[in-house]
Amino acid sequence: MQKKLSRGKSVEYISSYKNTPISALTWKDNKPVTLLSTYAGKLPETIVKRFNRSTKSKIEVACPFVVTEYNRHMGGEDLLDSLIGRYKIKMRSRKWYIHLFYHFIDLTVVNSWLLYKRVKEEQNLPVQFELADWRKNIAYSLTKSGDFKNQRGRRSISIETKRASTRALAMHSTRAVRTDGVGHSQIRADKRGRCKFPKCNGYTWIQCNKCNILLCNSKTKTCFNRFHDE
């Protein structure tokens, strides 16, 4: 049927799923264009100008409403595809739904970052995270949230050696991790250092087993509890 359509003609089929109308439309431009939408359909049609190769002049052809809407918003879709393609999850699988699942994850991460940027701009605040850092923080929060380390005392030499080899990948705990209330136990650090709680100038031996940072915890300074509560 698509090959028999003349330029500017279209065929639409309408169905519904859970009381939601669905329009499947094929429109003949230079080539057949097929669109599926729950928002727009064929009507109302508009008139657009297209170049005719045989007459070497522009002609007017009918254009369905769903095509007009797609062209009006396609800049946002192209930008979204570009952002997803920068740091796309690459998983090999022969099952189509696996690719669809990871695409939705990429889509959710990018949309959350765009909303984060919009909120910062509305509040006239600087954007602290670019897309790559945003993905890193989400991944770090998901892998650390709810994690529990049954570890007491000084760390072994083997763990110290491993940490030194991966020091470039270390990240500060995100708010989701430090406030999850799981596995944040106090251990004695190998070396006394400055407390990492904001505006605290104290020195301490106490370190959080999960967050891996030094925090004061005494009668006068409760940085450890405040850091994991705020």
UniProtKB/TrEMBL annotation:
Under InterPro entries, the record lists: PGBD
Q: Does the keyword section mention Transmembrane helix?
A: yes
**Membrane-spanning parts:** 96-116
Which keywords does this chain's UniProt record carry?
Membrane, Transmembrane, Transmembrane helix
The yes or no answer to whether the keyword Transcription is present is no
Q: Which residues form the PiggyBac transposable element-derived protein domain?
A: 12-113
Q: Under what name is this protein listed?
A: PiggyBac transposable element-derived protein 2-like
Supply the source organism for this entry: Sipha flava (yellow sugarcane aphid)
Provide the gene name from the record: LOC112686564
